[in-house]
Design goal:
This protein is α+β, with helices and mostly antiparallel strands. The protein has one domain (30-171). It is built from four helices and five strands; from the N terminus they run αααβββββα. It has helices at 24-32, 35-74, 83-97, 158-171; strands at 104-110, 114-121, 124-133, 136-146, 149-156. The protein has a five-stranded antiparallel β-sheet with strand order 1-2-3-4-5.
Length: 172
Amino acid sequence: MFPETLDMPPTGEKSIAYTSTIVDDQTHYAFSNTDYYRYTAEREDDIIRRDTQLQLRRQFDRLLNQVQVEWLAYREYFAGINLRDVQEVASKLLATVLHTSPEKVALEFTADATIFFTFMYPGLNAYMEAHFDPDEETEIVINAYINKKPVFAYGGTLTESLQAFYSYLNQR
């Protein structure tokens, strides 16, 4: 019987010296190119992605339901503004900011036609106000604090305010 080597299967031939052409740094890359790795990695990634999307969706739905419930109690203060406009602004703001992974999220309506959002991150609290006026575009004001000290403030349209807040978060 011919000797077997660990790096080659028995072939019935004499053993030959085997030198790998894969450098140690390439080993992970070479393995990650196999069909098995792609299949298992994609499945694990899909499970994680699906779970994260499901959690975001549940949180988003819960908050939008809260908008609808609070609208019923505060609609008299939102004269000239319909529920659809409020839901559109709230959903765009929530859909965007929830992807920044805040630990806690809360919202409340106020008597001056404003929705007040609270987003708590580790070491940072962000407060966003969406003020509705039937004659003007909705203004978004964002204030962020670290240890009760202001570190970020911005006011403008929904898009401008969210872009500014994202820029701030990326610099942190």
